[in-house]
Specification:
With about 150 residues, the chain is α/β, with parallel strands linked by helices. About 25% of the residues lie in helices and about 30% in strands. The structure holds copper (II) ion. The site of copper (II) ion has 8 residues, from loops.
Length: about 150
């Protein structure tokens, strides 16, 4: 009987894992030097709403861009990518993620991702208020991204 319960357990586990992954989507954010409509050093899209468990692949237009997390949910893992390399993050913790391109932070190259419920929105807003003193251009982008969170 033991072998049958083991098999049942394995089948149950793989079915559960499969059903968790079935709905997960991959999204793409481009890290652009110029977006063709007059914006420079910009994430496209700058604000993205995903579901818990989805993945986002960040694709730099050239070697000068990367992504680095700034303010994220408490239980989430910070991320930081290599310059010029595509990088995929799994958003397994719900909340708001504020991130930047490390070398273009001062130029306002930041982005916001909402995964599921925005339970840490107030914390992200207060972190942004502190960090925004280091941004000299396009600060309003972040305000505009944060204003889209529902
Ligand atoms: Cu950049």
């Amino acid at each position: 009987m033991r072998i049958f319960s083991t098999i049942t357990a394995i089948l149950f586990t793989s079915t559960t894992l499969f059903s968790l992954n079935v709905d997960a989507k991959n999204h793409e954010v481009k890290l652009l030097t110029a977006d063709g409509s007059g914006q420079t050093m910009v994430m496209s899209p700058g604000f993205l709403k995903v579901e818990k468990g989805d993945t986002v692949t960040f694709v730099p237009s050239d070697v000068t861009h990367n992504v680095e997390s700034m303010s994220i949910p408490d239980s989430a893992k910070p991320f930081s990518s290599e310059m010029g390399k595509s990088f995929t993050v799994t958003f397994s913790e719900e909340g708001v993620y504020l991130y930047k391109c490390t070398p273009h932070f001062a130029l306002g190259m930041l982005g916001v991702i909402q995964a599921g419920n925005a339970n840490n929105l107030e914390k992200v807003k207060s972190d942004w208020t502190k960090e925004s003193t280091g941004v000299v251009m396009n600060k309003e982008r972040v305000e505009q991204y944060l204003s889209q969170i529902k």
